[in-house]
Every structure is written in C-alpha cells, then in structure tokens.
Amino acid sequence: MKKNLSIALGIFLVIIILTVCLLSFIYMPHEPNEMNISQKFLKPGVNSEYILGTDNFGRDILSRIMYGSRNVLLVGIGSVSLGTFIGIILGAIAAINNKLLSAVIMRIMDGLMAFPGILLALMLVTVVGRGIKGSVIAISIFMVPVFSRLVYSMILDTENLLYIKAARSYGSSNLTIFMRHYIPAMLPRLVTQFSSAIGSAVMIETSLSFLGLGIQPPFASWGLMLSESRQFFLNYPYLAVAPGIAIIMTVLGFILIGDGLNDMLIHRRSDDE
Amino acid sequence: MLKYVLNRVKSSLVILLVVSMITFFVLMIIPGNPAQLILGTDATAEAIEDLRIAMGLDRPYYQQYLGWLLDLLKFDLGTSYIYGEAVTSLIIRAIPVTFSIAVFAMLIATITALFFGILSAVKKDSIIDYFSRSIMQLGTAIPSFWIGMVFIVYFGLRLKWFPISGFVPISSSFAGFLKSIALPAIVLAIGETGTLLRIVRSSMLDSLKQDYMDAARIKGLNKWKIYMKYALRGALIAPVTIIGMQFAKLAGGTVVVETIFALPGIGRLVLTAVERRDIVLLQGLVMFITTTVIFITLMVDLLIMTINPRIKSVERGE
Amino acid sequence: MNETVVLKNLHIKDGKNTLVSNTSLTIEKGDIYGLVGESGSGKTLTAKAIINLLPEGLKFTADEINVAGKNILKASQNEVTMYIGKNAGYIPQNTVFFLHPMIKIKNQIADGYVHHMKRSKAEGLKISLQLLDMVGFENPESILNFYPWQLSGGMRQRVNIAMALMNNPAFIIADEPTTALDSTVQKQVMELFKKINGDTGISILLISHDLSLIKHYCLKIGVMYAGQIVESGYSKDIFENPKHPYTQLLIKMMPTMNIKKNEPIPEIKGFVPEKGRDSQGCLFKERCPFAMDVCGISVKEHNDSGHYYRCNLY
C-alpha cells in the first residue's frame, strides 16, 4: 500500500515536470531571456503577467523555470541513458568474456567508483568544457560504473539458470542469449536503477550549474538561477523559491519511483522464496 | 585473517593505481597548453616552448606518467600554477577545514539516523515510521546549495546566530570554531541522514528477527534495553560501513557547501583548480581525495572485521 | 499446588489460518514432560505460547495458562514479561544465534538475573560461574570471556542451559535441544537435563521429534499432530498400549538397534496438513489406515484415568 503510494507520488511529480517541459516548446508566457529592467524584482502574484515574479534583470521567472526544465531533463535523462548504455555493454563484456579483459574492465570501474560525489564530474568538465555537452559526458561517465557493476553481477547470478543453459545448448550466440534472455531478466532492476540514477543526475547537473560549470548564462537553468539569486537573496528571497522547489520535485519524483520499484522487487523476491 | 587483510590491502593498492592512471590520462587530453596557461597570452612562442620542455611536457605520455607517479610516492604533488605554491602545502592547510565539517556532519547525521532509524524499526508501519522516513527522503532530495542559502539568510543574516562565511581555527577560539562549522555541517548532514536512516532501519528490522532477540525477550528484560543492547548491536555492521563511506566522501571535500559558506577547504581548492584549469593542482587534489577515500574504506572494512565475529566464524567454516 | 504448568484449550491463529487447536497439557512439579510430533505439528508454538514468546502476528486464545501458580492470562503484558523472565527458561533448538554473536558471554549471561533479582553484575557473574561449573565446564572463568562463536555447538548449548537456570526458574522449555548436536554430545546434554531435574526438582518441557529420546527421559508425554495433542499420558502407558493410530505408527517406526541392513524404514504416507486445522473432525483422517466416514465430522475424546486420546475407534 505504502509502496504504491510512493510510486504514485513519484509518477505524479515526474508527470508535472514532463508536462512543464513539453509545454515550454508550445507556450511560454515570455521569452526566457527577455530583459525588462523596468519590471525587475516583481514579487510573485503582484503582476498577473509575471505569475512567479521577475529577477534582477526583469526576466520572467516562470518562463525561465519552464525553459530550464528542458536542460535539466535533457542532461538528466540523456546522461543516464548514455551511461546505462555504455554500462550495460561493459558489464556484459566483463561478465561473458575471458578473465583478463573482465579484470581490466572491472578494475577501471572500481577506480571510477573511488571518486567521491561530484569530483569525477568536476574533473571531466575541466576536460570536456562547460555547458550541456560537458555536463552530459561528465555525468554519463559517472553513471557507467553503477550500471556495469549491476549488469556484471546480475549476469553472473543468472549464468546458471536453466533456461539460459538450455539456450546455450541449442547453440544460440552470445548476443542472441544476451538480448533474448538476459535483458528481459535484468529489466526490472535496470529500470529501478535508471529512475534513481536520473534523480542523482539531476542533482549533479543542478550542482554543476550552481557552481557555474554547467549551462552558461544567459541561458536558464535551475542551478544557475539559484546561483544568480544568491546576491539578492536577503532582500528578495522569493527568487530562490521556484527553482528550489522545481529541483526538489524533480529529484524526489525520480527517487520515489526508484525506491518504490525497488521495494516491489524486494517484495517479489521474498515472495518467491 | 591475515590473508583477508593482505587481500584487502592489495586490492586497495590496485584501485589506487587505476585511479592514478585515470586521473593522469584524463587530465592529459585536456585542450590548451599548460605552459601557455602559466605564461599568459602575451608570452612569446619561444618562451612557451622553453617552459614546456622544462616541465617535461615534451616527453612521451608514459614517461610523464611514471615520473609523476614517482613524485607521488615521494609525496611531491608538484607546484600549483595559480598559487605558485606546493600543492602539498595547499592541501595541508585546507585539511582541518574540510575534516572538521565532515566530522561534525557525520556526527549529526549518525545521531539523527540512529535515533529515528531505531524508532522506525521498532514502531514499524506506525505514524512515526512513516513520518521520519518521509522527512528523511525529502532531505536527500533537497539540494545542499539551496538549504545552505536559506540557512545563511535565516540563521546568519536575520537571526545572526552564526557567521555566514569563513573558518575559525579551533586553536583561536573553540566557540568560534563551532559556530563557523555548524551551518555547513548541518547542511551536509541533511543530505546524508536519509540514506543512513534507511540502512539503520532495515538492519534493525533484520536484527529484530534473530534468535538472540528471543533469548533477550525470554529473559524478561526491559524493552528498550533489549533494543539498545541486543538488537542494535546486531544491526551495526551495515550502518558502520555506510558511515565510513559517507565520511570518506565528505572528507574528500565538499565543493558546494564550501563554496556557499566561503570555507577555505579542499572542495574550495578543487573548484578553483577546475575554474582556472590548474591541472597540476587538480591532479594532486584528485589523488589526495581518492587516496583518502580508499584508505578510509579500507580502515572501515578492517574495523568491521574486528567487530564482526561472524566473518571470522564463517572463515573457520562453521 | 502441584502443577508447574497448566495449559487449557490453546488455539493459535495466523490470520485466519489455525495453527494449533484444542491443546491442553499439565506439567507437574519435578516432571519431565515430553512433547513429540513431526515438524510443523505445533510443538514449538505451543511451548512459546506458554512463555509469551509467540512470533509477532500470531494470535492465541486459551482458557488458562498457569505457570508456577499464576494465571498469566489475567496479568498485564509487563507483568507477564517480568514474571516469565523470572520463572521460566528457554533452551533453543538452534544454538548458533541464540547467544548474541557480537557480545561476550559474560556480558549477556547474567542480564536476566541482574534485572530480576536486582543484583550487581558481579553477583550475577558469580552465579553464572557456579552454573557453568554445574553444566560441566571445567574452566568457567575463561568461558565467560569468550564470544559465542568461539565455542562448539555442545558448549553453546550448555551455556544456554546455564543461562536458562540463572534465576532458578520453576520450569524450563527445551525445544529440540540436541537436534543440532552430534550424537555423543546429544547424550551428554540429555544426561545434564536429567541431572538438573534430579538435583533441583525443576520441571522440564522437552520438545522432540525423537520418540526414543522422549521414551528414555520423560515420565509423561503428549503426542502432537497438526496442531493438536492426539494422545497423552504416562509414557509407560502410551508405549505399552498406544491407542491413537498415529501414535501406533510412530512407535512402530521408531528406529531400533536391530534394523537389518537394506530393510526399508517404514514411514507414514502423506503430509501433515497445513490447512483445515480448525475442522471438528479428526485431522489424521487422510493418513489413517482405519479412517471411517465419521472421522471427517467429529472425533471422540477418551480419558482412561489420565491416558487421554482422541479417536473414533474406541
């Protein structure tokens, strides 16, 4: 009951964010970068044209939040997809192939896992450069060891399952067995991990933008909006409310879905026993 | 047992070696000439080339790597371009700051997570359980920079309870020291408590099902004595591992929090190195941080081996 | 007051599923009472109901549960915990995690004593030394400094026995106390129970699936099947003149020393039913060689001067 509630809440939050993002392609109240100094620092609700108010340049906060959702979701979903893809391939190669290659891949994964928090992302941003491309590459490499380890251990766990042995005895190729048998068997846990990973990716992306290493001004990004609001925050605290809530909703949404799915998986496994 | 220790030490060293390769070669492919960065755009091509050779950047990559590795073993991390100072001494100066906030953050997180985690497990599916888990989950989803900004304005600027930036060394004033790290530590703790609470709760639930709980119950002991002495003792292994990992992560620098609170710690150095593309400084910092993480993880594993007789009894084949 | 334990009409349910029904037993002072049956027959649950140790989620009802002169059904939960902790002991089947693996023996053995007798830990340890000596340890002091995993299964079980005896309880439950031990250690542990019973007059509820063990050590026995006691009384009466077909079959398949090689060991066909234990009929019907139609509807209870059995054959 509670597990379903957490998934339901998660899906609800994610749907809101996705809707906002899709809507931004069709309609935004203002051009997100349009400055209107005469209208600067409007509080939310004062002017019906600027529902969430305006920032220090008189830019419409609602439009910037809507526009920012594109970047957050693009980087979040894009980097995790890329990381998952590479992770699955590396994990599968390590699990199926010979000892040396497997050892090399897995030691590199161990090495990547030893970089705490956003350090790896920071190092990669230094190399690739700031902006969307840098963020996507940095975060996707951050995600690779997570997924390759998962896939690696799941394949080793299922190696002895009867139907896979059977498929091998028919002479199916490694690739066929992988696509037909392993992927479906691994899908539930991959989806679970995928959802939680998007939560972390969004958190990293907003941190990078906040530090000025992600999307560059004047383009809108939630982390950047918070960073820009810092110097005016004492007098205009509302500047930080909308981007903060947007980040929390997005991160929480994906984490809740991941947690709920995870609880369901554990439940299912213990029912099987 | 000795074999286990040696194996753990060996695999830590392998990871460290892998990390050094990743760090060196990733930062090697960076665009831009370090010599140019140092001398600036006004320098002549000749001067840049001379410096490049002087820095050994014309050698093949593997030679540069081996040279760098040898220097690492001598604790020589090179000289920072931007500070013109040895990276080691920059790091040594930053350690107390980062280490203090990491210790206090983990203290706060551990106490909170133990309190609510035990309560949640003992009162499973009650309002308390539901409430504490929800709050903590929310805590993991709140960005530290956001909560940091709120704290600065509310506790720092409005109420003026705490300074909003800078670090007071413990040697100059203990109260000042505590005040200067309180807010950053709390902000960090908010992010770490949720994960820890979840682990405490699930290990407690597991421990509550063990036979020794029957033994404790039949003795007719006070309920909380049973929980604290028997259940908690059996539930500590996983949380200790997580606390170790979290502490290692925080001790490796907390870029965001150190930035918001303008603390001159390791994280602040990392951000400066990234912003100004000081490759030598960044390489040195990354190696220092990953070594710290790997070392703390190793220590925690060994600690757990000594507090967990089960590992030993499994090794004896029981 | 001559009975240490009186249990009347116990029912245990897991949600809607009945696990134990209509179970009554009486253990007299100084007796060793044997409860025998296949696994899943409800022996352990019955014993745990007496000492208030049923797993969470199980609900029980009974007309009376009297332990050492006190009907614990009429006491508050806290009183029961205190009372049972002081007056009863429990010795488990599996010795591995009954003692807390991460706590030294000396830091857990005297907990109950210190709590109930309001004594210092030093006094508790003094008593534990005496008891460890009594259960046959030659060097009790060093045992106290061990972690449980440093002891063998037989040693752990003797520590468990000493721990159960700390408060000088009126009765102890030994739940398959020798199952996990090898046969020479089994014998030592059982002889220890007999000695303790002889020396202190403590009542023992011995649970086992091993009929020969029960026959050898118990004055009175109860045979459990599918959550009911189907036959009970003096051990002598039951072994000489078993009434219930289940008891008869059990006795018939008791392994004897003179089974010839390759001779098939007899077995009772079928399984202990998990469901339908709330039926008014005989639960052994499906496996009984003498089953009649009436057995599905009701079952007659007999009591021949203390020899109780429930069967329609008589």
UniProtKB/TrEMBL annotation, chain A:
It holds the Pfam family BPD_transp_1. It comes from the Bacteria. It is found in: Cell membrane. PROSITE patterns: ABC_TM1. Signal peptide: none annotated. The keyword Manganese does not apply. One of its GO terms (cellular component) is plasma membrane. It is a multi-pass membrane protein. The chain crosses the membrane at residues 7-28, 72-96, 108-128, 134-152, 236-258. Its main location: membrane. Belongs to the binding-protein-dependent transport system permease family. This is ABC transporter permease. It comes from Sedimentibacter hydroxybenzoicus DSM 7310. The lineage of its organism: Bacteria, Bacillati, Bacillota, Tissierellia, Sedimentibacter.
TrEMBL record, chain B:
InterPro entries: BPD_transp_1_N (IPR045621), MetI-like (IPR000515), MetI-like_sf (IPR035906). Its main location: membrane. PROSITE patterns: ABC_TM1. GO terms for biological process: transmembrane transport. Residues 95-304 form the ABC transmembrane type-1 domain. It is found in: Cell membrane. GO terms for cellular component: plasma membrane. Pfam families: BPD_transp_1, BPD_transp_1_N. It comes from the Bacteria. Keywords: Cell membrane, Membrane, Transmembrane, Transmembrane helix, Transport. The chain crosses the membrane at residues 12-30, 99-122, 134-157, 177-200, 230-248, 279-304. It is a multi-pass membrane protein. PANTHER family: DIPEPTIDE TRANSPORT SYSTEM PERMEASE PROTEIN DPPB-RELATED. Belongs to the binding-protein-dependent transport system permease family. This is ABC transporter permease. It comes from Sedimentibacter hydroxybenzoicus DSM 7310.
From TrEMBL, chain C:
SMART domains: AAA. PROSITE patterns: ABC_TRANSPORTER_1 (PS00211), ABC_TRANSPORTER_2 (PS50893). GO terms for molecular function: ATP binding; ATP hydrolysis activity. InterPro entries: AAA+_ATPase, ABC_Ni/Peptide_Import, ABC_transporter-like_ATP-bd, ABC_transporter-like_CS, Oligopep_ABC_C, P-loop_NTPase. Pfam families: ABC_tran (PF00005), oligo_HPY (PF08352). Residues 5-251 form the ABC transporter domain. Keywords: ATP-binding, Cell membrane, Membrane, Nucleotide-binding, Transport. It is found in: Cell membrane. Its main location: membrane. Gene3D superfamilies: P-loop containing nucleotide triphosphate hydrolases (3.40.50.300). GO terms for cellular component: plasma membrane. Belongs to the ABC transporter superfamily. This is ABC transporter ATP-binding protein. It comes from Sedimentibacter hydroxybenzoicus DSM 7310.
